[in-house]
# Entry
Amino acid sequence: MYNSLMMELKIKRFNELTPDELYRIAKLRVDVFVVEQNCAYREFDDLDQDAIHVWLEEDGKILSYLRVLDRGVESEYPALGRVISAVRGKGLGAKIMQEGIKVAREVYNAEKIYLEAQTYATKFYEKQGFHVISDEFMMDGIPHYKMLWEQE
# Structure
């Protein structure tokens, strides 16, 4: 685990983000999803303006991030997306997922939460309580599954 005493949880709507925060979020997402994964796709998809942005940071560095979308934006259920960790193997992915689920439940009264997972990451999401609800499909040249979390 990472030293949670030094980390700060941030939860903001798009219009609350500072220019620096928006830049750091976009840079992390592009660095990993576009550059590291060598995937040319529409990173700026016009959904960020409707999202709640959730991240953990330390000393101004974003350690993990995701966005939460209301029902009807990406799915009939509230959805999590753009899940990313700059620091891997330290439990930060699980931590940001817990926070994202919490935001979806508190803000959107979610009893079910949707996400589209890259195939290699489905086991990680299953550990967070999600289960596969589709056949594998290609998105931006990368295999994915649709997944759903359901309140117990």
About this structure: The CA atoms of residues 85 and 93 lie 6 Å apart. Residues 19-36 form the longest helix (18 residues). The chain has a mean pLDDT of 90. The helical segments are 19-36, 92-108, 122-127.
